[in-house]
Amino acid sequence: MRIFISTGEVSGDLQGSLLINALKNQAMISNLELEIVALGGAKMAASGAHILGDTTAIGSFGLLESLPFVLPTLQVQQKAIAYLKQYPPDLVVLIDYMGPNLGIGNYLRRHLPQVPVVYYIAPQVWVSSLAASDTDRVIAASDKILAIFPEEARYFQNNGADVTWVGHPLVDRMEEFPSRDVARARLGIADDGIAIALLPASRRQELKYLLPVMFQAARKIQEKLPQVHFWIPLSLEIYRKRIEKEIQNYGLQATVVSHQQQEVLAAADLAITKCGTVNLELGLLNVPQVVLYRLNSFTYWVGTKILKVTFPFASPVNLMVMKEIVPEFIQETATPENITQAAMELLLNQQRREQMQVNYQQMRSCMGELGVCDRAAKEILQIGNW
User: Fold this and answer.
1) How many domains does the chain have?
2) What pTM value is reported for the model?
3) pLDDT tens digit sequence for 216-236
4) In this predicted model, what pLDDT tens digit does every residue of 333-358 receive, in sequence order?
5) Are residues 134 and 245 in the same domain?
6) Which of 41, 161, 211, 309 is disulfide-compatible with 303, CB 3.0–4.6 A?
7) Host domain of residue 47
């Protein structure tokens, strides 16, 4: 059975790799031979996919921010379509990555309608106030949607899609994480040491808009707590020089690590983080966090003032239960002062910290039971009639 999987950015590569491992396990049980070709990255390649194009570094969010990536995105999309035309697969799985994936889905609908298309981790159109047209496009491009959020499943079902809620795949991945004590021992963090994880970027644009304000907040925290040490796991190695340079510029006591992200997250007393999948990982690890996000000011102005885009929450933690569990600071509110105040409260106020951890349990209850990836894999192979 030949499966084509299309995804982009660092988080998509992670989710794709988890799915590939589950597909291989289910195929082995069924004595089925799989060939997986993909748009993705190194994690999917390590899981056994043949990578047609690396999409981990060409993702963006926003109007002006996306311009440098238009040509690379079109090129990889055309490469994928050329492959599909020459070697029609038995089934296609789309993971997030809305623009390119809808292009691929539309091509399949027009030229290879016999090929089933599964959208796994659909774009979060259910969050935005301008969802109608994108919702129709997602549904039109897919035969089946495998939802990871309960609210996402309800939304697509109400709009007429064939949808199954499988749970969130991070539930499975958390089995791989070390305990807090083991993680701190591996990193050499003393029992009384204060470790703060800084997670500024998985996209290049985030280094520009998030790193300065995050590091300004970190410097303020360091002034208040001189014993603090910051840990910065790299999402992509190409960001190392820029981050290390800024650590020196801001005078931070910080360590950059490449292959110990799990240890950094599990060991942290607090995380100051961009908005994204990592928020859920921190929640599942019971690590208090402060979330921020910034875009180009023109992009944000167009979105909020012209297009009138609204959304209830930005962090997946809050979206999971549709209430504020973790503090979010978006655009103008993402200031060093606000971030520092929220961070210090979580570090020094035990009651505030414990309340967040209690709320994390509500989030966890909405993420499904273990075996998410296996359930998704079974659904996919069943749709492919294998």
Assistant:
1) 2
2) 0.86
3) 999 999 999 999 999 999 988
4) 999 999 999 999 999 999 999 999 99
5) no
6) 309
7) 2-167+369-383
